[in-house]
Amino acid sequence: MLGMPAGGKCGRQQYGMRPPMNPICANATTMADETRNLADRPAVLAVVVPTFNERDNIEEVVRRVGRVLEGLAWEIIFVDDDSPDGTAELAGRLGQLDARVRCIRRIGRRGLASACIEGICSTHCEYVAVMDADLQHDEGLLREMFERTRRDGLDLVIGSRFVGEGSYGEMPPLRQKMSRLATWLGTTLLRTRLSDPMSGFFLVRRETFMRHAGRMSGKGFKILLDYVTTADNQLKIAELPYHMRARQQGQSKLDTLVLWEYLLLICDKTIGRFLPVRFLFFGLSGLVGAVFHLAVLRVGLTALALPFLAAQGLAVYIAMTLNYFTNNRFTYADRRQRGIKLLGGLGKFYLACSPGAALNLTIAGYLYYGEGVTWWVAGLLGVMVAAGINYTLVSANTLDKNG
Known about the structure:
7 strands, disordered N terminus
């Protein structure tokens, strides 16, 4: 019809009339216009936000970061560990509206520290900030962190709860105690000069970070301590105070496992150069299993009056089960199985340990029946010889990364 210009849902209007614009279309238009205005200005600051089940928070994170960094060429990178709540899908839709929003969806990979490293490696920005998606970090500090790093030639600026007017905010008392213990461990054992090595809120000069990234462990939740210790405390660092806010949406991922992961990182940075940390904790778990093994073996021989090999087999079976659940909870916490996968993983664990179990029974039986060795020595030596082969096979075939 004459005077009726063609148009899409957002652009259709009658000649001489201007209907109210759909708010979603208006937001999309505003973001698109701003993105086009910055098209000739490559981003200088990237904000990396690791996520897992944070769908309710990411729109607000983008809004707040955009407000604080207005006029600055920036991008935000969500690194999502395949959240079942649709975090990655929503981040992708936001990226369709604003090219400054990107999302890396990690399939079969887990861990906050490794997510941060992957996010930093994915950008070409000269400066990269890391912050949580739970809105507990004060995004208002981002511009000051950026300007301070650039002005003073720093390698790292940290948002700290322990300098100046910084504080825990409304953090529960138990988490405060855990944080203080972890801070003491980091500063004492690793001799760091940070007031808040547990902080997950910081900004780095990417060029400096990339020089050390290849030697970082990437384990657990605390990438900051990993980075600083890997760089041998040779970084130019400043700390700025911030007040930690309470989480508004979603559930905290922090529990006693975080402290365990932190201990793994401490061990990796102290003795990891001499002995693989996973093997160390696998061995400790095996030591507990060995004690339990001998107890079951004794019960089998005395209370149940079983032949030695039958009692040894029962002890092996029960000890393997105990080791599986212990390793699933702690040693391989970053690959932890849950639900139905837990039972499937147990079956894989039995299968992977079967060569070691056969070797265990063969050696123990030979020593007990052929050499006349005492029952507990024969049983223990069988366990020890099988431990190495079990570690190799289990690491390669069990507790896969999809847990």
